[in-house]
């Protein structure tokens, strides 16, 4: 069982300070997020520049951005960015992906695709291209949206057989869950709009059973869940986390998206992860 912390805000120097504090406090992963322009948030930074800095300021923790929408990232550029950060971190990068939040002006305000079905198609093709270019072998691609003449991208990632990809899976949508089976981790959500917060441990248990029954790969697979725990009450934190651990998650992500006070976030980081002894 591993525990990560998502840093939701702060200027770029504060983000790096919090990253180092999280590693020192015993968290297993430190994550930023991928956004272009969300006006209510205020200060935002390019995730790949931030992750590169996080990579060289830490030694142990997993790093990544929660999460990247491949539909608005050129997959060959994303391949270069991810491999670079993977090498800088000596193989500690994770790539969480999903359709993305449309309240980001990086979609509708700049003419990117917003229709759900087409974003899903772009994500599937982008992941095919990403993993193909990561191979370090000659690769070409002919899809509905992307056409690539043969290219070889070197170096390949530090991690082999590839950088882990965590994919949003909407339960119980078969197409969404079948996509998850091809990769290395599940970010659970509900298929019905607005129902993500209503997923319960029993839903996670059902998703885990589906993956165990249908996934053919024998490589490691993670199930990731976000939530909040009190850092000053270990017993209460354990009560919150334990049902999800029992349901099959392998990562608990401490997320404070709505916490405006950076000092509160820093205090929670310093208190360390809600490990169950």
From TrEMBL:
<keyword id="KW-0560">Oxidoreductase</keyword>
<dbReference type="InterPro" id="IPR011251">
    <property type="entry name" value="Luciferase-like_dom"/>
</dbReference>
<dbReference type="Pfam" id="PF00296">
    <property type="entry name" value="Bac_luciferase"/>
</dbReference>
<dbReference type="InterPro" id="IPR036661">
    <property type="entry name" value="Luciferase-like_sf"/>
</dbReference>
<dbReference type="GO" id="GO:0008726">
    <property type="term" value="F:alkanesulfonate monooxygenase activity"/>
</dbReference>
<keyword id="KW-0285">Flavoprotein</keyword>
<feature type="domain" description="Luciferase-like">
    <location>
        <begin position="11"/>
        <end position="248"/>
    </location>
</feature>
<dbReference type="GO" id="GO:0046306">
    <property type="term" value="P:alkanesulfonate catabolic process"/>
</dbReference>
<keyword id="KW-0288">FMN</keyword>
<keyword id="KW-0503">Monooxygenase</keyword>
<dbReference type="InterPro" id="IPR050172">
    <property type="entry name" value="SsuD_RutA_monooxygenase"/>
</dbReference>
<protein>
    <submittedName>
        <fullName>Luciferase-like protein</fullName>
    </submittedName>
</protein>
